[in-house]
Each structure stands twice: as structure tokens, then as C-alpha cells.
């Protein structure tokens, strides 16, 4: 009987994976690109070429209980990734079966944001909290909802796609889904970048450090760096992003009345530039009974750690 | 040991109550106004003057286990109605305690829409369904959310205030809360009436049966009757209402992925005039993984029955 687990986090850009013991220590970890592979089988091959030696170094397959995977649109019940707008692999991808066949270990799948929420519940600020929502602000916007200490899966395993809720009727186009005005088109790294371009175009006479970057170079990280130096447009980008995110959070609070919202992922590096407008906007949009009750925190877990730990936790369920 | 329960449904306009047996038969029922009483103590007095004789006729207090109450912003944990925008009684009202002291039976409270959802789960279309959302379209818009067969209460007992989620940024003003563009300001009886006035004003040369009514006379019922006769503006009112409701439902589906949405309350009398645009709009706003999966149904329970039954079910928990 094995004592270790593999946790795999398939993100929109990068896939991270590691060996985890029952106490939540990551003994070893590595990563490969997600975007590089048009064909999922080539992705599985490269994953295997890194994972199998890693398993060998840790006592071989007999020393492992199984593999837990978090992925966008990952379905716990079916083990398939279905119509993930942010991945190259279209339609329904039987990812759990593919990994199981390749590596030879039982494999469970869930939504990447659900995996992050499990990580937060076991090792982060949400420890001991029965009602919380984890929002991942990365390439896209994902969410894991916890009610009464359990991840909300819904009747079909797809609950918690809060990034795709519409927050601006007729708003910004989302390439992956064709929708207009969803949260993800604003409150993701991609969204921040797009907002920056919009604000630069709207206000062509306003000086901005952002104008020193080429279209390629300008990322959410660049916007953060410029905002930290006091750049007016860059700061406005985070105010706008926080305003929209806060409105969405208010709607979510009025759904499940969580005690805490944990924000997670690349965009949280912006710190107070993002937190202040987000909190203010959430409070302004809540009705009386919910005001000044809900904590918003940035995850204190190392990003790749939480995702790997959360995914690996599926194995011990 | 008693065998009967009292179910009380405190609605925005009317309070309905009845004697219920363990099989879900309503042995007797009655109603009083909710709006008439500025002081909650006068409300309790009148409720008692109807309820106590009703209890006497059914074997006296010793024949009853307790009282279950559904009310707007009713809190299961504290037994208080808190800051209900649609009621005269402001602040925090200890309604369960007031009723308990007056009638002498143990009293439990929940949100009125949660009570309706429990009624649907036990006696309606949602029987046997583990994941569904019940939306009440009455004077206001309430909601009861069921996940894994349990009402979602949230960390403080206030979960499921979907009528107050913002669906149109900067939209119609809501008198009760001061918010702009919440679902309740459009998809309630009050909202339908307001939409009718707006459409009549926007299109002053368009003939409409609705113009035959005074401001007082024009209600959601009038709009329904005119729409049934083919009135262009009245039909447009329901199309608009359904469009907004459908957008909101799509957002809710992407939160908890329910198998079914049960619509309940006065507005559902509009039948296909409301159902068709609601379904079309919901489907148009869902991402691929949720499309053509979620049933929307109108409750088949008699309105006051479901609310009384649902409230009484609190007693048997």
C-alpha cells in the first residue's frame, strides 16, 4: 500500500506537478507548458517523461496511492475536461483515463479552482472555515465554492464557473466562449492587459510609463510595476478591475453567504492596488445584512504549492 | 407529544398560516395582511387572535409539536428577521421569540423562499432532486438554494438573496435597499408594473390596452391579461422581464449547477409569455458545458399551500 500521492495542476499556461506525502509536504516538483501541445497525447507523453522518473526516485508506483489532477472544466464525476475555453484541447478530453493508462496509477480529476480551494481549506487561511469561496485570478478566472466544508460540485460536477458569470451586460467580448461581459474578461491577467490598452487609447494625451512597452511586453505584471511607481493609468486599471471584481463578489456573497473569500493567483501580486477597490466595491453592492461581515484575503500559500496540494488531496478522500 | 405543526408564511403583502399534519395535509388555513401593521406587536396580536382558536379546534397546544415560520430575511440560526427591505418592521425583529411567547409553542424561522424550496422538495417537482434553485416571483424576488438535498444557509443563515444580486449595472433603483439594477427591481410583480410604465412612456404613440387603466389599477395581473389579448406593449413587458430573469438564472447555474430551477409565485401565472423568453435568455447566456441541461419549471403547488407546508416542515427536522 502506497503512502504518497501525485498532484497535477493543469493551468491555462503551465502544468505543475509534484510528489506529496500525507502530511502535505511536497517532496519534489516540476512543470511543463500547457499551451505548447495542440494534441493532448503529446502533452501526456511529455508529462509522463517527467513524472515517471519522479515516481521512480520516490520508491516507484507501489509507493503511491494515486494521482489527483486539477484542470479547467475538469469534471470530478466523469474524469473528463469538457469544452475548456482556455485550453487547446477542444471537446471532451478523458484526461483521467489518459493519465491512468500512461502512468498506471488510479487518477482522479477536479476543476483546477476546486483543487485550489481544497488546498486553501487544508493548508491556508480557510483552515477550519466551513463556508468560503476561492477565486483564482490567473490567465483566466476560476472558482471553488465551499459550503458546509464541502466543495460544491452541482448535479453534473461543473458547479463553480464564476469567471463566466456575466457582470457587464453587452460588455467585453470573451474569445473562448463568445460571451460578452463575463468576469473573466475583466478580472484576469488577460483582462487587466486589455483594460490597460483600452485606457491608453481612451486618453491618448495622458503620459504613462505603460507607453514605453510594446504590445507584446505589456502584461498584468507590467501594469503592476507601473502602478507601483505611481503611474496614473496603471493605477486606474487596477481600480477598474477591483471595482468589477467587487461587484461580482457581492453577487456571490448574496448567493452562498460565505465567511471568507480567498483570492489566489498571479493578479494578487498587485496587493492593495487591487484589494482596496475590490473591498470597497463589494461592500457598496451588498445589501445591509451582508455588509462588513465577509473577509477578503489574498492566499498566503505559494501558488503552485496550493494547486499541487489541492489536487493531491483528491487521492486521500 | 403533539402530532401537528403550524406553518406560517410571512409574505411582503399577505401572511398565510395553517395546521399541517405529518403527511403534509393542510387541515385548516387562514391569512392576515402583512402590510397593515406598522408595529410588529400588533401583527403578532392579530396573528394570535386567528391562530389560537385554530389550535383549539385541532386539539389544543398539547396536540402540536411546534411552529415553523418563513419570512423575508428570516434567519434560521437567530430566529430574527433582519433588515427586510419589503416589510414595515425595520432593523432586527425577534419574530420566532415573539410568536413563541404569544402562542406558547416552540418556533423556528427561515427565509420565506427557503421555506418554499423545502415545500417543493417534499411535495413538488423537485421531489427527489438533490440540486435545484427555487425562485419566488411575487411582490419581491426570493430564492431558496438546495445543494446535495440541503438548503444553503451560509455561515450566518442569510444565503440565497438572489433577488438582490445586481443584473444591470447602474440600472433601476430599488427603494427598499437603495441599490441599482438588482433582479428584484425587474423580475417581481412590482418590477413588471414599472417596466409597463416605462414602455408606455417610451412609446407614446403605440396603442395599448394598458392605457385604459389608471396608475393604481395597472398591476402585473393587468399586464398579463392585456398580453394574453395580444397587446404589443404588454407582451414586450414579459419578453423584457424574461430576458433579464434568464440572464440572472444563467449566472446562478454557473454558480451551483442545479438540475432544475423551480419558479414560484404570482408572476408565473403569465405562463409561456414569461417562460419562453426566460428559457431562451438563460440558454443564450450559459457557456457550453451548461447548455440544454437545466430544466426550468413553474411550480405545480398551490402557492399558499407550498409556503405553509415548507414552513411547517421546519418543525419536523
Give structural notes:
With 317 residues, chain A is of the alpha/beta class. Chain A folds into 2 domains: 4-119 and 304-316, Nucleotidyltransferase, domain 5, CATH 3.30.420.40; 128-300, Nucleotidyltransferase, domain 5, CATH 3.30.420.40. Chain A is 38% helix and 20% strand. Chain A contains 9 helices and 12 strands. In chain A, strands 3-2-1-4-7 form a 5-stranded mixed beta sheet. In chain A, strands 10-9-8-11-12 form a 5-stranded mixed beta sheet. In chain A, strand 11 (260-264), helix 8 and strand 12 (295-298) form a beta-alpha-beta unit. In chain A, helix 1 packs across helix 2, helix 3 packs across helix 9 and helix 6 (220-228) packs across helix 7. The mean pLDDT of chain A is 94. The A-B interface holds A 73, 82-83, 85, 130-131, 145, 147-148, 150, 152-162, 164-169, 177, 179, 247, 250-252, 254-259, 285, 287-290, 293 and B 73, 82-83, 85, 130-131, 145, 147-148, 150, 152-162, 164-169, 177, 179, 247, 250-252, 254-259, 285, 287-290, 293.
How do you describe this structure in short?
The structure is a homodimer of 317-residue chains. The first copy, chain A, is built from nine helices and twelve strands.
Amino acid at each position: 500500500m502506497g503512502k504518497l500521492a501525485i498532484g497535477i495542476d493543469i493551468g491555462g499556461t503551465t502544468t505543475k506537478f509534484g510528489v506529496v506525502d500525507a502530511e502535505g509536504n511536497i517532496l519534489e516538483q516540476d512543470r511543463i507548458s500547457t499551451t505548447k501541445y495542440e494534441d493532448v497525447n503529446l502533452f501526456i507523453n511529455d508529462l509522463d517523461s517527467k513524472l515517471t522518473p519522479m515516481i521512480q526516485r520516490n520508491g516507484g508506483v507501489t509507493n503511491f496511492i494515486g494521482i489527483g489532477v486539477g484542470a479547467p472544466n475538469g469534471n470530478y464525476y466523469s474524469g473528463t475536461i469538457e469544452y475548456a475555453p482556455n485550453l487547446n484541447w477542444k471537446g471532451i478530453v478523458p484526461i483521467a483515463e489518459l493519465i491512468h493508462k500512461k502512468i498506471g496509477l488510479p487518477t482522479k480529476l477536479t476543476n483546477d479552482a476546486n483543487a485550489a480551494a481544497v488546498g486553501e481549506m487544508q493548508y491556508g487561511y480557510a483552515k477550519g472555515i466551513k463556508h468560503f469561496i476561492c477565486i483564482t485570478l490567473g490567465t483566466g478566472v476560476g472558482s471553488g465554492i465551499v459550503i458546509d466544508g464541502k466543495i460544491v460540485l452541482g448535479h453534473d460536477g461543473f458547479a463553480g464557473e464564476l469567471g463566466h458569470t456575466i457582470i457587464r451586460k453587452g460588455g467585453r467580448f470573451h474569445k473562448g466562449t463568445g460571451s460578452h461581459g463575463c468576469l473573466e474578461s475583466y478580472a484576469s491577467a488577460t483582462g487587466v492587459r486589455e483594460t490597460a490598452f483600452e485606457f491608453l487609447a481612451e486618453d491618448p494625451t495622458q503620459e504613462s510609463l505603460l507607453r514605453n512597452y510594446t504590445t507584446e511586453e505589456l502584461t498584468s505584471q507590467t501594469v503592476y510595476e507601473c502602478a507601483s511607481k505611481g503611474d496614473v493609468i496603471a493605477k486606474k486599471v487596477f481600480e477598474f478591475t477591483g471595482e468589477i471584481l467587487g461587484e461580482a463578489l457581492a453577487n456571490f456573497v448574496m448567493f452562498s453567504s460565505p465567511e471568507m473569500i480567498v483570492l489566489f493567483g498571479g493578479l494578487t501580486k498587485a496587493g492593495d492596488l487591487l484589494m482596496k477597490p475590490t473591498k470597497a466595491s463589494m461592500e457598496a453592492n451588498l445589501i445591509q445584512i451582508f455588509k462588513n461581515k465577509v473577509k477578503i484575503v489574498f492566499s498566503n500559500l505559494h501558488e503552485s504549492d496550493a494547486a499541487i496540494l489541492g489536487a493531491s488531496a483528491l487521492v486521500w478522500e
